[in-house]
Specification:
The protein is α/β, with parallel strands linked by helices. It has nine helices and 14 strands. The protein has two domains: 138 residues, Rossmann fold (3-Layer(aba) Sandwich), CATH 3.40.50.720; 146 residues, 2-Layer Sandwich (Dihydrodipicolinate Reductase, domain 2), CATH 3.30.360. The radius of gyration is 20 Å and the shape is globular. One of its GO terms (molecular function) is aspartate-semialdehyde dehydrogenase activity.
Amino acid sequence: MGYKVAIVGATGNVGREMLNILEERGFPADEVVALASRRSQGTEVSYGDKTLKVRPLEQYDFSDTDICLMSAGGNVSKEWSPKIGKQGCVVIDNSSAFRYDPDVPLIVPEVNADAVAGFAKKNIIANPNCSTAQMLVALKPLHDHATIKRVVVSTYQSVSGAGKEGMDELFTQTRAVFVADPVESKKFTKRIAFNVIPHIDVFMEDGTTKEEWKMVAETKKMLDPKIKVTATCVRVPVFIGHSEAINLEFEKPISADEAREILREAPGCLVIDKREDGGYITPIESAGEDATYISRIREDSTLDNGLNLWVVSDNLRKGAALNAVQIAELLVERNLISPRQKAA
């Protein structure tokens, strides 16, 4: 007997990707339901060779649904995830609404799979920020080997991290530049076409942005509370794929060759690291792929035990949709939930 799965936010970039990945990976679902706000009612979305009609979230009864993949933003999640959880359906939430709640596990399966068992307190599991997820897939095996003391990360984040509106703005502005039309900024604070913007999410009192704060808080919650993290998060004119330049300081010695071998064996990692023209990954090659790619692995001579890495991943997949589906697979593999829609 298979599971009944609901996707909330099924018409968005991540929701559509969740539907694709559920089908691609053969998730054991007997029924998949597409949900969104009332204004999207009747919109059609694809699930494998099937077409699903979107239903309104407000009118849906979750009492016979096993898993809800939630990708409709923080405000919707804050309102609906606790209600859905109380109906016995496990919510895997892609927003930041519950990531820092001590009663809600924050999970990247390659990093802290065992923490998933704590979901039963609220029937909610949080998906981390897309930039944190790919970073920790690369950092976890290195931390296990040599213990990371400090992380300095600069991100180069694609516009799809800001949703369809972000992608549309890059396209529209780029076209406007070429035809000499006025360039209008609606989604981003400054022009994104042929530019970079060192500002993602809102500013906080200490001068960091919320995106940078998320990377710090989530790394401490999922990997190790003792790790020191500092981040600079930058939006770049790329459609899909986040890139990160990461500098690491370790407690124990670790060479670039050792790191390369460790990462080659690590789950979810793919090392592409040839010291030659083109012997590294860029965001365009990561689009549509599941792996977290690691290139430019080299020692930092300014530290006793330092390494530099270049990490790239498709933010809509590993940063969001794939990670959520992997969490659902974890629940099934560990027999933490059972199908209930046919119990009557």
